[in-house]
Amino acid sequence: MTAPLHEPTAEAAPSAADEASVATAGSAVQGRSLGRIAWERLKRDKLALAGGIVVLVLIVIAILAPVIAHLVGQDPDRYHEDLIDPLFSTPKGSLGGISGAHPFGVEPVNGRDVFARVVYGSRISLLVGFLSAVVAVILGTVLGTLAGFFGGWVDSVVSRVMDGLLAFPQLLFIIALVSVMPNSMLGLTGTDVRLFVMILVIGFFGWPYVGRVVRGQTLSLREREYVEAARSLGAGRRYILFKELLPNLVAPIIVYSTMMIPTNILTEAALSFLGVGVKPPTASWGQMLSSAIDYYDSDPMYMVIPGVAIFITVLAFNLFGDGVRDALDPKGSR
Fold first, then answer.
1. 3 state DSSP class of 158
2. CA 212 to chain centre
3. What's the chain's Rg over C-alpha atoms?
4. How far apart are CA 122 and CA 309, in angstroms?
5. pTM here?
6. How far is the CA of 189 from the CAs of 21, 95, 197, 319, in angstroms?
7. Which candidate, 92, 90, 127, 121, places its Cα nearest to that of 281?
8. Helices and strands (H and E) in the chain: how many
9. What is the DSSP string of 171-188?
10. Which residues of the chain have pLDDT under 50?
11. For strand 184-185 and strand 188-189, is the pairing parallel, antiparallel, or unpaired?
């Protein structure tokens, strides 16, 4: 019997390079949560990251306003009449009295430190911006979800209320309401009363914008396959609302919240500018702009500095909001 022409050979063992490539491929394929995907998309947007950093810095400044003012040795309500020209009631020196002790200069007439007042003014703007957005998001989410999920007469009533509020002159109503508010209410006095009223009214008139977005998303989500599957398995309305719909509404709610905050900040500045915001001597950017009207030609820096503060704040929130929207949008290309 003749021997076979080719001896059977053992299967070649995989080389080290092949094992490394397999390991690399295995490590590359891994699950990523939606939050991680959104964060990776957000990290690629440099403008959004810059806006987010500025927002964080502003929040820290607002929280630590007393500490910052103490470090620079200034009080927002302390008068420095010796720094004011008695003839023209304007700060001595150039650029509104800017110096080492007063990096942003001093106010006309009374000589209060502008830097300390800008720092304290950030607390009012951010407080009204954030809390009124919270009020609007809560009302808009609850009513928009109910309207979109139940439909019928519930949808009709909520939609007509939203239409009416969107057509209502919000600014005029706030001016009229704040003007007749008492000096004390619910244990609050003075500026606290006006802050409370502004937060509630701005948030109340802002919820229809959130409600429309949430209602539209709910109408779309309630017809999805996973919702129908939950219904077919016997899931109740509460389970579908809290387990199937609300988790999928988080992204649009977050996006719209970041876009609403700068609008609320501008509304607060406008109210303070018109004299129906916080009461003096509480520092407010809009109030500073209103006081600067009489001195824009002799002391333009007094108008420029609070105006720049409002501009930077609103721009930072808008850039960050755009980045969050793109990061949470699965159909986006960025």
1. helix
2. 19
3. 29
4. 8
5. 0.82
6. 70, 37, 12, 36
7. 121
8. 13, 2
9. HHHHHHHHHT--SEETTE
10. 1-17, 19-20, 22-29, 333-334
11. antiparallel
